[in-house]
Amino acid sequence: MFLSRSGTEDPPDDFNLSPSTSHIEACQFVVNDHTAQLCLRIVQWLEGLASKALDLETKVRGSHVGTYLPNSGVWHHTQRFLKKGASDTKIVHHLDFDAPTREHAQQQPDDKKQDESLLEDVWTLLRAGRLEEACDLCRSAGQPWRASTLCPFGGMDLFPSVEALVKNGKNRTLQAIELESGIGHQWRLWKWASYCASEKIAEQYGGKYERAVYAAQCSNLKLMLPICTDWESACWAMAKSWLDIQVDLELAYSQPGRMEQLKSYVDDIEGSPGQMNSAPQSSVGPESWPVQVLNQQPRELSALLQKLHSGEMIHEAVTRGCKEQQRQIEMKLMLGNIPHLLKLVWSWIAPLEDDKNVFRPHGDPQMLRFGAHLVLVLRYLLTDDMNSPFREELMNVGDLIIHMYAMFLFSKQHEGLIGIYASQLARHRCIDLFVHMMELRLDSSVHVKYKIFLSAMEYLPFSSGDDSKGSFEEIIQRVLSRSREVNFGKYDKSTDIAEQHRLQSLQKAVVIQWLCFTPPSTIADVKDVRAKLLLRALMHSNILFREFALISMWRVPALPIGAHELLSFLAEPLKQLSETIDTLEDYVSENVKEFQDWREYYSCDATYRSWLKIELENAEVSSLELSLEEKQRAIAAAQETLNLSLLLLQRRENPWLASLEDHIYESMETVFLELHAKAILCLPSGECMCPDSTMCAALMSALYSTVSEDVVLNRRLMVIVSISSRNDYCIEVVLRCSAVEGDGLGTHDLNDGGLLGTVMAAGFKGELVRFQAGVTMDICRLDAWYSGKDGSPESPATYIVQGLCRRCCLPELILRCMQVSVSLVESGSQMESHDDLIELVACTETGFLHLFSPQQLQEFILFEREYTICKMELQEEPSC
């Protein structure tokens, strides 16, 4: 960012001569004047580019500008012509360097051609800021006089920069000259002489490079621009010319008697700025300098750039170049119009108006890369001293550019680099970007996902400590929350709802993998971060386990793949949990206990489904054709199912999914409980129902009727049922009631989910009295929390969902055990633990009977009847 540096180095004190010189005054003026300073930087920047291009050409081609034989510029052909005594009015008769101008004649064509080639190289070196090399070239070609005209005053570099001042050292040649003639007198004389030389050469149709070389010494733009056939050369010529004129005017103003004369002339030409007409004929002497070329110069930088677009003497290639993206960027940087520059870059890479996908990269990759890095550099350089509108523009438009480049990197599978750029985005954009990437890469390989994880971990803070920066915790919280949303789309009747729930559960479970990765050891507090990741994984897994359990009540062989995917993800991290938990141990233990409860439950569920699969396979074959091995396999699976289930059911000191009493909610004010559920209404056949407003009203009435009117009034029960705005096949159910002792306040001895659990369980089990018989509510998402009078959530009411799971899962587990018992006794096997199962249900201490609905209790009795009949038949067989 060469053009945007703040401040310029002051001339060293050692070089402040007394009396001063015109060069010292020029350098001091440029240091103090912002416009002159900017011109100086533009000139140095463009000369630097040209110099690098020369070096590259030398390296690649092996050639070098200015490679000449010694004395190749002394007009050998003209000498030979004159020695022969030949006479030609078009050929000079003398060999001094003034002869062509004085005699209005030319050298021999070969000499003239060689001179023009020499001066082309001199121009190239001057264009690259290599004045010393240009002078050396002239001397080596036998034209030391030309070197003196380019670098007067003993070869001093008169460029108005501190670098040139230091390079000249304590050379007092100019000081000695100006002590006699006055400051700036010889300076003006040299400029005026250069101007006269360039004009005279042009009048006699001399070489274009020769007149341009001398025009460059005196700001004579009309003779420089014709050979500037590219944007950089034309811009350099105009910037250098304007810089020199500013210096000349400053030196003129500092001299008494000349200020009024020049000021009046400037006022005369203000009416037609930028016109490249010749100066008035009356202003021809050196004392009037620089009025001869003043009307060729721009009044301000914007006028300079406008000349590049449409100036009279500008080459058409330069005008075309102004339309190139690179040149437009450079011109905006020159003007310092950073907000407009950012808008310009954004207009080149922004999505089309009809393209609503802001996450899809657009535009040229090089422009995307340039725009992003331009924003980063500008923020680094300018953030501290930006005014509010400028800062707002740099942050807002800059964020859009960086965001687009980050998406480009993502589309090219450079996930590891994205964190560098995302960390520079505003908080909400950073979070949105990572959430979008994580969702798109959810089904990618572990390697790809780990790159995104590392990118976020290394470049973003883990926890939110700065409102302006996104954090990993906020990102993962959004990802986890969004992953719980149902996305069935249009209901497919060819696949039953149970299978669709299975597939959806897998998508929900895979998200946990983001929390199971190992954070890099280079981040701060890596042990605490690892512990927090595992804790978050446990908490979210338990939420999903509850939902998966409520949708896996179907007695089918297919496993709930989402739950088992969760178990596999957390198997290894749980081994590390005891080594990483310190202060969080109490809170973690509660989540670990629930996780272990679910692991045991799904183990029972898996063995049951394994038995059911075997049973269904055997049912397809005649009992006479079944081998003894197949029968024994079915019996072994049944016994394993019963043994595991009884171990879970017989836990006395630590009942399955019973709420701990460590976190008892107590409040002096009225507290409410809320339960929000998204569900799909399913027929007994497994088909999905498309809800309408009538059905929602009927369901709401049916949910109210699950409890008495007194309970509704006393507990302020509120039920709302509506069609989901995101999915036409989903309904949203909101239950709300006041908390009371034993249900929301104090301990929860019954562990049945309280009032809200009772109401919702009836819908899940398909036993709503005033609703279509057999229709069940298949859960998609379930949340419960405490809330205040205004309905704002305060803290999770986990006991409600846990109790609801006990209401649904434990009776189903017992009924499955009864089903397996019947199968065992039918196969001729005796089951000693069957009576224990009956006692568990009947025992008041377990509270299992309280969890059964009337229909479930009826099914339990029917299974017991069938078991008893089969057992009696089995006992009677030997006596027959």
UniProtKB/TrEMBL annotation:
GO terms for cellular component: nuclear membrane; nuclear pore outer ring. GO terms for molecular function: structural constituent of nuclear pore. Its main location: nucleus. Residues 614-641 form a coiled coil. InterPro entries: Nup84/Nup107 (IPR007252). It is found in: Nucleus, Nuclear pore complex; Nucleus membrane. Functions as a component of the nuclear pore complex (NPC). Part of the nuclear pore complex (NPC). This is Nuclear pore complex protein.
